Amino acid sequence: MMYRKWFVSAAGAMAIAAAVAGVSARQLGSRPVDDWTARLERADRVAGLKIDYIIASLGLTPGVVVADIGAGPGVLTLPIAKAVAPAKVYAVEIEQGFLDRINGKAREAGVTNVVTVLGAFGDPQLPARDADVVLFHDVLHHIKDRAGYLKATARYVKPGGRIAIVELPPDGSHKDEPALVVTKDQVK
């Protein structure tokens, strides 16, 4: 699976918000959590995510506070938590079922630095404004009000922090659904 990545400063999130204003897409809530989990945890999908590459590219080292927006069942959350420990990783989801799954996986793995957060459609609702990196991995296209959500998210990023967006390329699997495509121009 090929992904494109873009790194954005918190201040740049405001510019992104203006660029994507009016863009509409389906929300995640269109499928049950179990269906999404089966899809997101498929071995071939996980193998193609290049999790170690993402962690290295983002400079996720011990002490870096991360917010994993749209964490799903925690496929990225737990490896990130291990990389940044003892710092926190906020696993943000709008579906409690995903958060329950992440909590269970973290408990089983002995990972204690994951903080699950029940976000809202318009705001990640992080408990603090301390994120060094906010990661949107294959999730921005699911957000209906991208501009509003990015503006809300920018409030939780520390000065000097970053927002990282990883999305499928415009000619990827969503090419026939223009509302689900996040282009490079939208995140400049």
How does this model look, in words?
The chain has helices at 10-19, 33-40, 43-48, 51-57, 77-84, 96-109, 146-154; strands spanning 4-9, 66-69, 89-93, 114-118, 131-137, 157-167. It is of the alpha/beta class. The protein has a single domain (4-187), classed as Vaccinia Virus protein VP39 (Rossmann fold), CATH 3.40.50.150. A six-stranded mixed sheet has the order 1-6-5-2-3-4. Helix 1 (10-19) runs antiparallel to helix 7 (146-154). It is globular and about 35 Å long. It starts with a strand and ends in a 21-residue tail after the last strand.
Instruction: Tell me the name of the CATH class.
Output: Alpha Beta
Report the CATH topology name: Rossmann fold
Bulk shape:
globular
Instruction: Return the average pLDDT rounded to an integer.
Output: 79
Assess the beta-strand content as a share of residues.
15-25%
Number of contiguous helices: 7
* Assembly state of the chains shown: single chain
Which spans of ≥5 residues are poorly predicted at pLDDT below 50?
1-5, 9-28
User: Going across the major beta sheet, what is the strand order?
Assistant: 1-6-5-2-3-4
Number of strands: 6
Derived from helix and strand composition plus strand pairing, the structural class reads: alpha/beta
The whole-angstrom Rg is: 15 Å
Termini Cα gap? 23 Å
Question: Any guess at the CATH architecture?
Answer: 3-Layer(aba) Sandwich
Proportion of residues in helical segments = 25-40%
Main β-sheet, in a few words? 6 strands, mixed
Provide a compact summary of the structure.
The protein is built from 7 helices and 6 strands; from the N terminus they run E-H-H-H-H-E-H-E-H-E-E-H-E. The protein is α/β, with parallel strands linked by helices. Helix 6 links the parallel strand 3 and strand 4.
